Amino acid sequence: MARRRQIYEGKAKILYEGPEPNTVVQHFKDEASCQKGAKVGVITGKGVLNNRISEHLMSYLDQMNIPTHFIRRLNMREQLVRKVEIVPVGVIVRNWAAGGFAERFGMEDGEVLPRTIIEYYLKAADLDKPLITEEHIAAFGWSAPQELDEMLTMALRINDFVSGLFRGVGIKLVDLRLEFGRYWIDEQPRIILANEISPDNCRLWDVKTNERMDIDRFRKDLGSVAEGYQEVARRLGILPEGGPSDVKGPDTLQ
Questions:
Q1: CATH code: domain of residue 27
Q2: In which band, very low, low, confident or very high, does the pLDDT at 241 lie, cut at 50, 70 and 90?
Q3: pLDDT value at residue 125
Q4: What CATH number did the domain enclosing 122 receive?
Q5: Mind listing the pLDDT tens digit for each residue in 124-139?
Q6: For residue 93, what are the β-bridge partners?
Q7: CA 45 to chain CA centroid, nearest Å
Q8: Contact 247, 78 (CB under 8 A)
Q9: Are residues 96 and 177 located together in one domain of the fold?
């Protein structure tokens, strides 16, 4: 691949200028971070697995006419995605109580919720992504009401599909975080899914044992973190032959 200029680097991904107009190359890293950056580490092969898992799920969403930023996988660590204007409102879909939600409401991890619950958070890493309400979103103009309705509708459809897909391979989708962006077509913005779906932003537990197969293994020092990600890919039937391998990303121009 030709040398591309880096335009962004986050905890789990690097973004490079794309080879085509209105595109970005998304490179998946092995690094992991939590506790506001106080805990960092490397999960060997995580980027490769997240790339493959997300490609697999995004391809299904495309067949369901759910618009996403995904265009195609370029190699073991990279995808070509549409360039979007990120909406600063993230959506959390919760099917079971877990993590901070369980703590806030005095519930046990894995306790059944009376119904699927939607929460919103502000995409602001320096503020630790605080939870917000529709009132906040409207007052600060972070999203138009119609956009928020579209995000909610898409989030529920994505949750229904992904829950069913994972359930079919013995995995419980406890919750997932989704982010959306405005993709401009003929000067008209269209709301599309604009982040991956992977064990980095989903809680994935074994249906029978509640064994965790996601980033919580890193957060909670449970060990065998890479093996958890590998098990998700194995059950989906997409674990690369011989396990995860590495592919160097494009060189960065300063």
A1: 3.30.200.20
A2: low
A3: 77
A4: 3.30.470.20
A5: 878 889 999 999 999 9
A6: 118, 176
A7: 17
A8: yes
A9: yes
Q: Give long-range contacts, CB 8 A cutoff, 24+ apart: 237-244.
A: 238/52, 238/53, 238/56, 239/49, 239/52, 240/48, 240/52, 240/76, 243/45, 244/44, 244/45, 244/48, 244/49, 244/76
> What confidence score (pLDDT) does residue 244 get?
60
Span 164-212, pLDDT tens digits = 999 999 999 999 999 999 999 888 899 999 999 999 999 999 999 999 9
CA-based nearest residue to 175, from 233, 114, 119: 119
In a shared domain, residues 192 and 102: yes
Residue 99 has pLDDT above 50, yes or no: yes
Kindly state the tokens that stand for 102: 């369980």
CA gap 230, 219 in Å, rounded: 17
* Residues ≥6 apart with Cβ < 8 Å to 138: 145
Q: What is the pTM of this model?
A: 0.90
Contact 87, 143 (CB under 8 A): yes
Chain mean pLDDT for the chain: 91
∠ CA 160-223-219, nearest 5°, is: 60
